Amino acid sequence: MMEKMENIVFDRNYEEDEPDPLAQAIFDRVNAPGGFLEEFSKKMDAIPKVIVPKDKENYEYLLGRCDEFAKRHHGKIHGVVDFEHWDAHIDLTLPMLEFDDPEDMSLLKDIGEKAHYCCITTQEDGKFHFHVMINYFEEIMSEEYGDYLKFETLAEDDELAAMLNMGISEEDEAVVRLIGEILDRFDNETHVDKTTAFKAVASYLMQNDPDAISYELIAATLTALLEKVLDDEKHEED
User: Fold this and answer.
1) H-only helix segments in the chain
2) For the chain, what percent of residues have pLDDT higher than 90?
3) What is the DSSP letter of 3?
4) Superkingdom of this entry's organism (predicted)?
């Protein structure tokens, strides 16, 4: 006969530590009105978007499954393809949030595989709010241009750059601003938009010597491209 065993107990205390003052200050700065997040979002909103076919398929699939879940659990569902915030999301309001059979459990698995974010909160009336988000859209731009926009936005906020120990030299800041001015000239003076121009330059430099890429080289190559485009368009008009 097996001896009676003691219960196996696992206890951990993960009470929240005191917030890091620097981390809190960075969070407040990034999310402040007119701060990094707002300004970067404005720049990203200006980039042309396309629908990602796989995300569209995943959204429609999850919307159907969540609709079935809401029916079985006597809840409400609200799905949106959002052209203002550039995503698609599904919101469920449920009297009880439970996954008690293989079908419900498979929904959790599908959400984990097909969505990009989910969040569960409680409401004042005691019901549960289950939010699921799928990116759905993507910007028509290169990864390099996205990195440039982040750097440019950070360069505009010296205090945030200092908090992140990413002090930007006056030389780098000047070159970043020059790149921005050159890209604006593409939009204002040519038939080539700034995103296409930057993608062309990034692709060209990556094919030649990626290790030699610098902001100065990007600015110089963009300038040469701008002069060529302006010259070509002038000859076309003549």
Assistant:
1) 21-31, 36-45, 53-72, 102-114, 143-155, 158-163, 170-189, 194-208, 215-237
2) 36
3) P
4) Bacteria
